[in-house]
Amino acid sequence: MKKILTIIFVLGFYLVSFSQDNRDKIKTLKIAFITEKLNLTEKEAQAFWPVYNSFEDEYMKLRRQSYEKRKNIDFQNITDKDAEALLNEIRVIEKKKYTLKENYMNDLLKVISPKKIILLNKVEDDFKHKIFEEFKNRRGMRNAKD
C-alpha cells in the first residue's frame, strides 16, 4: 500500500512539475526519493518536511552569502587587512552554518529516529550521486547526437 502511495505521490508531483524548471523537478524527485528510502510514515513526513525544507532554505542562504563574499575577490591586489576582514566574515557565516546544523539535528530528533537521521545523510548522498549520473548520461547522449 505504501509503495502504491509513493508511486502516486511521485507521479502527481512529476505531472505538476512537468512545466516547471529543472530545480523544481529535482526537488520533487528528491522528496519522493527521501520519503521512500527513509520509509517515512505519513505522520513522520508531515513533521519532517517542514524541518528539512526550512533547514535547506536557511543553509542555502548562508552558502550564497559565503559565495558572494568570495566571488569578486581580486586575488592579485587584495591587502592582508582586507583578506583578514573577509576571513572574519566567512568565519561568522561558517559558525552560523554549524549552529544551524546543530539545531536541525535537534529538531529532527523530535520527528524521526536517530537511525533515520543517520540514514538521511546516506540517502541524500545517494540522491546526489543518482542525479549526477543522470546528468552525465543525458549530457553524453546529447553530445553523441551532435
Structure write-up:
By secondary structure, the chain is mainly α. The chain has one domain. The protein is 86% helix and 0% strand. Mean pLDDT is 86; it is low at 15-19.
Q: Summarize the biggest pleated sheet.
A: none
- Helix content, binned percent: over 70%
Category from helices, strands and their pairing: mainly alpha
The Cα radius of gyration reads: 20 Å
Global mean pLDDT: 86
Beta-strand percentage range: under 5%
- H-E string: HHHHH
Low-confidence residue ranges: 15-19
Number of strand segments: 0
Shape: flat
Task: Briefly summarize what is shown.
With 146 residues, the chain is mostly helical.
Features:
mainly alpha, 86% helix, 146 residues
List the helices and strands and how they pair.
Elements: H1 2-17, H2 22-38, H3 42-71, H4 80-109, H5 114-145
